[in-house]
């Protein structure tokens, strides 16, 4: 079994310091004395070496990474044809991504408009008349995932 297969990762937004502070707070709540931060770090390295903080991911897609690498490699060569080909591939991909982004924005707007008609929140002045339970309404929802974790 490879060493990385056993690894567990903390979200990139969570630091070991935050884990220590939560540990110390929970000890305080249980009226137990927490160990010092240096001891905590030593114990972590000794007994939990497989738990690491996840590194932030690049927000470039695989095609963008591949194309930018191709452009960089082509720039080192003296072939204008390869550089132009790589640049055209990048521009075509960028055009496609723009169209996808516009579609994404349109779907979000539609979901927000539908939500305004259903959601009740006094703080934001959303007070529609809900004549039927939400479970019986035909609702369009949009789920969004941010793999880049920005």
Overview of this structure, please?
The model has no long low-confidence stretch (mean pLDDT 77). The chain folds into two domains: 3-53, no CATH class; 62-136. It starts with 7 loop residues before the first strand and ends in a 34-residue tail after the last helix. Helices cover 51% and strands 4% of the residues. The protein has helices at residues 16-29, 37-47, 62-76, 80-116, and strands spanning 8-10, 51-53. The protein has a two-stranded parallel sheet. By secondary structure, the chain is mostly helical. The protein is built from four helices and two strands, in the order βααβαα.
Q: Helix and strand succession?
A: EHHEHH
End-to-end C-alpha gap: 32 Å
The quaternary state of the protein chains shown equals single chain
Number of helices: 4
Count of distinct structural domains:
2
Report strand order across the widest sheet: 1-2
For the residues shown, what is the average pLDDT? 77
Beta-strand fraction estimate: under 5%
Uncertain segments: none
Overall geometry:
flat
Nearest-angstrom radius of gyration? 25 Å
Largest sheet: 2 strands, parallel
Number of strands: 2
Helical percentage: 40-55%
Strand-pairing-aware structural class: mainly alpha
